[in-house]
Design goal:
Layout (H helix, E strand, L loop, with lengths): L1 E3 L2 E10 L5 E9 L6 E7 L2 E7 L8 H6 L3 E7 L7 E4 L4 E4 L4
Antiparallel strand pairs: 1-2, 2-3, 3-6, 4-5, 4-7, 7-8
Length: 99
């Protein structure tokens, strides 16, 4: 897991969304006020940046604050092309194994 301010990213999962993109589900825990979280997907062709919006979880903030964890969905590049993630404005990096 990675902690970025009041949000802790516990992990993620991915699945196909088309030939040129995948769906990602980031598992997150709140330790304070919710705010958007920057994620950059790194690969051999460069980087793709997305913003994880806690509102995309389709739950209201009080429910998310009391949850053990919740999911924030986002669409990104194909997982097979992602070699690393960068979380938050300070750029905490995580290397990923090839699928």
């Amino acid at each position: 897991s990675l902690r970025e301010g009041p949000l802790e990213v516990l992990g993620f999962a991915s699945g196909r969304a088309g030939s040129d993109r995948d769906r990602y589900a980031f598992y997150v825990r709140a330790h304070g006020p919710l705010r958007p979280l920057r994620v950059a997907f790194h690969g051999p062709d460069g980087s793709v940046e997305r913003v994880l919006d806690p509102g995309a979880s389709l739950r209201r903030q009080p429910a998310l604050m009391s949850a053990a964890w919740f999911i924030i969905p986002v669409v990104g590049p194909p997982r097979a092309q992602v070699t690393g993630l960068e979380i938050g404005p300070m750029g905490q990096r995580v290397a990923l194994a090839s699928e």
